[in-house]
Design goal:
alpha+beta; Penicillin binding protein transpeptidase fold; Beta-lactamase; 2 domains; 5-stranded mixed sheet; 5-stranded antiparallel sheet; 42% helix
């Protein structure tokens, strides 16, 4: 018993320790299932293809995943770089110039015009919907890129024989906005030769560019709301005539804000997006109306307007404002732009407002008169040119036409740039000199054969236009009949140098001929110089500096940066009485002389015609009590005209212009002095009776010219 008691049963733990190690289980090797072997002949034939497909799938989904990650990072990067919307609405690299007429109304724009920021919520709902309906009908249903639109555009391009990326682009509004932003690359003058090169690069269409554009567009969608993207687009789009953004375009074409345009106006504005220059209503109203009708149809089709509204818009298309319709003063605007410093005009980076002397009523009168006379008097196909300047007596230019194409912009301006021989239009300066030296309008001069020996050239024998001689004639008759020999005799007697000084004093800055042909207008001048010189006769003998700029200021500022100081009335050139006597003599030109076709019933008109050798130039410059009008006519290549004299078609243009200028006004008398009888003898080629009078007055005149 005890033995059994002493022998105890081992504990469970002890038994575990004593249990011999169990044999280790062998790790079961994972056996790969053998590659599926092709079965049969067909299997062996298909094996390479199935293997390749499996390989492509394994690579593709990995690449797709990596591409998605890269795309997401790129989109996130662009989204993080987007500035506030306010910094993106005005992307101009240069400023604008707004030109106002004498009444303060806008008549022309230069540079890139920005009318101010408008948001998608602020513009007229018709304009908002017209843009979406025309440019991107799925705008609110995509993430910046529209695969359906791209596929449709590629299909259309290929069907029409173009490259897949040529023609229709299938771009969404977001993509178009990305392109307008140049994918976030700002203009750098050190990188680009010009703004044109920069903008051209922004418009390049390559596959890589389209890919980057799509990524940038998705970045915009991540950074901005749809309405913010549309707001940027509405402010950045170019819409023709220098208008950047719909606010500037609405003001430019319709004289109103983009906030208040009606369906017809909204459709015309939205239609400009396709081709701004081609569809601009100022260039081709018919084409603009047709394009607007297409936009109206899209708006109706997509439910933005009712059929009744669509019919109304088609029946009553948008109309241009009076200023846009007139498009008056293009030559004048270009000339005024040259009167200010380039950094505030042609090369301005600011928005500038220039107040000018232009009178749009007078400008339209000059344009209409020129076109009317040319339509009536010229044969079809003639390319003869003409120019007109209308000026007040103080030199303020009220109208200017620089050529037959009265709507031209940045064109050759024959009123200010063409230097042509003046012919007999120069003669009033000879008579002004003589009158200031004591001659009277009724003094006599001998219209007889004349020979002058010119050193180095031999004898010179001037002739009258009619090749006849009338013997003793008054100075008045010699002027109104435009007789050449009396003018030469008078010029030689008073002295060519003094005549040149008087002409220069009145504003003829061109170099004048040194020989006796000076009296016959052998020198060249511009129409604006000659018109300004005649203004000096009208105002009583004081020179004027023709001007068009009244003041220049930054947009929004009250204080001008510059004004017309130094222009307008200048120093006195001849005595007032001399100018009044000359005005009487020039009045006789239109009453019974070479300028009778310039006369207007009930009005006193003074003027002078001029025709150069071979009728290469024809002039008529004249005035009433308020305005001077200068007209020049000729060919740009200086070819001779046939049957045209200054007293003919140019006088007709003068009359037609003046009649329109004075329409509805009461006639005012000319400031002229009717002369008494002559107290002197006859001036002949050999001498002058009144030599003592010349000597008495000469010192006074020369002294006045030097001051």
């Amino acid at each position: 018993m005890s033995k059994n008691r002493n022998t105890r049963r081992p504990l469970v733990a002890e038994r575990r320790e004593r249990t011999p190690d169990a044999p280790k289980r062998r790790a079961r090797k994972t056996r790969r299932s053998p590659a599926r072997r092709p079965r049969g002949l067909v299997g062996w034939l298909l094996f390479p293809f199935t293997w390749a497909l499996r390989l492509i799938w394994r690579i593709s989904w990995r690449l797709a995943f990596a591409g998605a990650v890269v795309l997401a990072l790129a989109v996130f990067y662009f989204a993080a770089q987007m500035p506030p919307i306010e910094a993106m609405v005005d992307g101009r690299t240069r400023g604008s110039v707004t030109l106002l007429d004498r009444s303060g109304d806008v008549f022309a724009w230069r540079g890139d015009q920005f009318g101010g920021m408008v948001t998608a919520e602020e513009v007229s709902p018709y304009l908002h919907d017209a843009v979406v309906a025309t440019e991107d009908r799925r705008f609110y249903r995509h993430i910046g890129v529209d695969p359906r639109g791209i596929a449709s555009a590629v299909r259309i391009n290929l069907r029409e024989g173009r490259g897949p990326l040529s023609g229709n682009g299938g771009s969404t509004i977001t993509q178009q906005t990305a392109k307008l932003l140049c994918l976030g690359v700002p203009y750098d003058p050190e990188t680009w030769d010009s703004e044109r090169d920069y903008e051209s690069d922004c418009r390049r269409t390559t596959i890589w560019r389209k890919v980057k554009e799509a990524i940038y567009a998705m970045g915009m969608e991540a950074a901005y709301t749809k309405e913010e993207i549309l707001s940027i687009y509405l402010n950045r789009a170019y819409l023709g005539e220098g208008a950047r953004g719909f606010e500037a375009a609405a003001q430019r074409y319709f004289g109103k804000s983009a906030r208040s345009v009606d369906p017809a106006e909204a459709a015309m504005l939205a239609g400009l997006l396709k081709a701004p220059s081609s569809y601009a209503p100022t260039n081709n109203m018919g084409r603009a109306v047709d394009r607007a009708a297409v936009v109206v149809g899209l708006m109706e089709e997509q439910g933005y307007i009712t059929p009744e509204q669509a019919d109304e818009a088609r029946r009553n298309p948008a109309q241009l404002s009076e200023a846009a319709q007139a498009r008056a003063g293009g030559y004048f605007a270009d000339w005024v732009m040259g009167q200010g410093p380039d950094f505030f005009t042609r090369n301005t980076t600011e928005d500038v407002v220039i107040r000018t002397t232009l009178d749009q009523r007078i400008q339209n009168a000059a344009e209409t008169a020129l076109l009317t006379v040319f339509d009536q008097k010229l044969s079809n196909g003639s390319d003869v040119e003409a120019a007109v300047v209308v000026m007040s007596a103080d030199g303020a230019v009220r109208g200017m036409v620089g050529g037959r194409d009265v709507r031209a912009v940045s064109a050759f301006n024959r009123a200010t740039q063409a230097r042509r021989q003046t012919g007999s239009a120069f003669k009033p300066f000879i008579y002004a000199t003589a009158l200031d030296l004591g001659f009277t309008p009724n003094d006599l001069v001998d219209d007889a054969p004349l020979t002058i020996t010119i050193p180095g050239s031999g004898p010179w024998r001037p002739e009258n236009y009619d090749r006849q001689f009338k013997g003793p004639v008054t100075l008045t008759q010699a002027l109104y009949e435009s007789r050449n020999i009396p003018a030469v005799i008078l010029s030689e007697e008073v002295g060519r140098e003094l005549v040149s000084q008087v002409a220069n004093g009145f504003g003829i800055d061109s170099e004048l001929a040194a020989g006796p042909a000076l009296a016959l207008g052998a020198s060249e001048s511009t129409l604006i110089e000659m018109t300004g010189a005649y203004a000096g006769i009208l105002n009583g003998g004081s020179a004027v500096e023709p001007y068009g700029l009244i003041d220049l200021r930054l947009k929004g500022d009250d204080a001008p940066l510059m004004d017309n100081v130094g222009t307008g009335m200048q120093e006195r050139v001849v005595q007032e009485r001399s100018a009044r006597q000359l005005t009487y003599m020039m009045n006789q030109v239109t009453v019974r002389g070479t300028g009778t076709r310039a006369g207007i019933s009930g009005w006193e008109i003074a003027g002078k015609s001029g025709t150069t050798n071979s009728q290469r130039d024809a002039w008529f410059i004249g005035f009433n009590a308020d305005y001077v009008i200068g007209v020049w006519m000729g060919f740009d290549d200086n070819a001779p005209m046939r049957g045209v004299t200054g007293g003919g078609i140019p006088a007709d243009i003068f009359r037609e212009t003046m009649q329109r200028v004075v329409a509805g006004q009461q006639p005012r008398p000319l400031p002229m002095e009717v002369p008494g009888p002559s107290q002197n003898g006859t001036l002949a080629s050999s001498g002058m009776v009144a030599d003592s009078q010349i000597l008495n007055v000469l010192d006074t005149i020369l002294g006045g010219l030097e001051n």
